[in-house]
Write a structure and sequence with these properties.
Elements lengths: L3 H4 L2 H11 L3 H13 L8 H9 L10 H6 L10
Helix pairs in contact: 2-3, 3-4
């Protein structure tokens, strides 16, 4: 099974890497959480919120599926 980091969409990884220059400690924590977990539901609310805050995705534009399953962030089998 792939970690969340391995399942993350390339554009989200790129954004995190770019943000790491400005916020090294915070982004490092997000990356560790993504590399240590295999299911979106295993992230804490804080970890998911931190990930979202370092992307261009608006909290208001997220669906319940995005919150529950990370659909905007993870590669699906169809992609």
């Amino acid at each position: 099974m792939k970690t969340l980091w391995q399942q993350l969409k390339p554009e989200i990884k790129q954004t995190l890497n770019e943000q790491e220059e400005k916020y090294p400690s915070l982004v490092k924590g997000v990356k560790i959480a993504l590399k240590d977990n295999y299911l979106w539901s295993h992230l804490s609310i804080g970890q998911a919120r931190d990930l979202i805050s370092f992307t261009d995705i608006s909290l208001g534009g997220m669906s319940s599926y995005d919150w529950s399953y990370g659909e905007k962030f993870l590669i699906t089998e169809d992609e």
